[in-house]
DNA sequence: CTAAATTAATTGCTATCGCAACTAATTATA
DNA sequence: TATAATTAGTTGCGATAGCAATTAATTTAG
């Protein structure tokens, strides 16, 4: 096994995954930049952009762009918070609700492609290990930002 | 454990990883788009763009752009093949050779950040599982392309 | 041996992404 | 209470990425 291969695998899997997501959701006008945002709005109705960014671990600017696009497509609607007018909350529209089953099943299919022929303990293990890696990297990047 | 989490972890780790790579190699003018290409030219002197693309699993257009940039930075030089003038072969320059140890150690550091606190069997396991995922996804995307 | 098909490299286009700078609203402080 | 600091959202910018179309060189077929 070559050294440094973990990062290489992550990058190459990410790129293939993006291709599959784009293909899967093309018919709905949704690309790999929007589907995670859409799902997280579905899971947390009324969430604001800052919290969404933290959940999805994506830059605020891109969260904003995804929301703009999803709104233009009619899958979500946004409202300013009455008490704090800085905050903009997003919820699914009816059209968005209707789309969710397709999104979920599409993502399920992609996951199945990725872990095809994995034994049950391996499916468990890969998720655990990836979670740990994410935690490590996130913590480290955060520490870099806190320094500056 | 949530469903669809594998893809989410891959994406978020990829983005953090890109941030770290960009920071690590900023001083050399090299970003996360070029370092893999550079390493693979070092490992396979005289490789052409098509083979590089297949190794790195990146689009030919981007391989081309990375080579252009690395050449402009003086880390590699390119030569047309004498027998087949379609083919352009890339090799490290002396400046490139001198840079390699820093690149390798930088990537080693990033890998260590990612798998901090991993036990030895886990380090083994994560690489195996990621390799299998990459194989699955690559095969699937390839099958899609062959259909059309 | 010429025309068609294939191959490798290249360019234009659009999407995604992080960062830095900015605006507007809110909160803290002097 | 008025000013400063913070917070949430927004915009511009440059880098990375895949796809499709183009060009130039080579190979295959008629």
UniProtKB/TrEMBL annotation, chains A, B:
This is HTH-type transcriptional regulator SarZ. Keywords: DNA-binding, Transcription, Transcription regulation. Residues 3-135 form the HTH marR-type domain. SUPFAM superfamilies: Winged helix' DNA-binding domain. PANTHER family: TRANSCRIPTIONAL REGULATOR, MARR (PTHR42756), TRANSCRIPTIONAL REPRESSOR OF EMRAB OPERON (PTHR42756:SF1). Transmembrane segments: none annotated. Pfam families: MarR_2.
């Amino acid at each position: 096994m070559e050294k440094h291969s973990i990062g290489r695998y992550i990058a190459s899997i990410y790129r293939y995954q993006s291709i599959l997501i784009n293909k899967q959701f093309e018919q709905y006008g949704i690309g790999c930049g929007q589907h995670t945002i859409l799902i997280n709005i579905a899971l947390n109705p009324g969430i604001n952009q800052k919290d969404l960014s933290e959940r999805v671990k994506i830059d605020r600017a891109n969260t904003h762009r995804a929301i703009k696009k999803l709104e233009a497509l009619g899958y979500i609607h946004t409202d300013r918070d009455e008490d704090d007018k800085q905050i903009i909350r997003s919820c699914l529209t009816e059209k968005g609700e209707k789309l969710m089953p397709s999104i979920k099943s599409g993502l399920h299919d992609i996951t199945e492609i990725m872990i095809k022929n994995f034994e049950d303990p391996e499916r468990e293990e890969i998720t655990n290990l990836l979670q740990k890696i994410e935690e490590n990297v996130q913590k480290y990047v955060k520490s870099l930002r806190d320094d500056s």
